[in-house]
Specification:
The structure is a single chain. By secondary structure, the protein is mainly α. The chain has helices at residues 4-8, 15-30, 43-55, 64-82, 88-102, 108-112, 114-119, 127-140, 145-165, 188-197, 201-206, 227-247, 252-261. The chain has 13 helices and no strands.
Length: 263
Amino acid sequence: MVSLLTIDHITECDCATLTRVTTLHFLQRTGLMHTIQPLTIPAEVANGVKAIVNSWDIDSNISRKTLTEYIRISTHLGHAAYRHTGYDLQISLYTFCCLLFDDGMISRAAASQFVGRMASRQTQLDPLLDRWIECVLGLSTHLPSYGANAVFTATLDYVNFDLLRHADDSDSNSGEEMVWLDLKPGSTEFIEYARVKDGFAEGFVAAIWPKSDFTDVKMYIQAFLPWPPNIAYTTDPVACKQSRPASGKTLWHDLRNCGITGP
């Protein structure tokens, strides 16, 4: 058993250990550790995701090695969290598109016109964005109307917030995020609002409940409330370990500190 004393004695800089120990402690407290089994991705899911992505017209500037890694990560995430649904392949494809957009693999010009072109039914400037829309529509066939709309609106919310984040950086993915916030002490509530917008959490939460098994949305709708911030707080320590050394990005825990003490 991992004790709270163990967690308290982990240094702030050791984010990887903090994330691992905290997650294990949480799972042990919920009893889920007794039900977790080694993850084996079915061949039809792994091969299906790979075949579909390889059939897409993706920017040739993205290397094959990079795409393979995104495929691997997306498939693991999709199957690990949604293997109970029967549409883990579809959620893996949606995740693949989300990750590429989130990591700046889409040009700012294409991203800035995404919503307008979708609303007017025009072809996107980047073909991957057309595939992303197809993924959203494909998921909607498996979800009740509220869940399908939640995936759609979470996607639009993220894209819209991303445009604001890069408002002064229209042609560059420099990696220096949130410089426009000009944070003042006491702004933590806005930071938490922005954090939820800067992600797809509610869409991924909505995809948990397939309409074939959960016909009455009212039975689980209140479970939506805590999960978006919980997902953010779970993933942010991982970003602390992975992003800072490589890119020097401004990360969410930095912004929370600014919101408390000021820049």
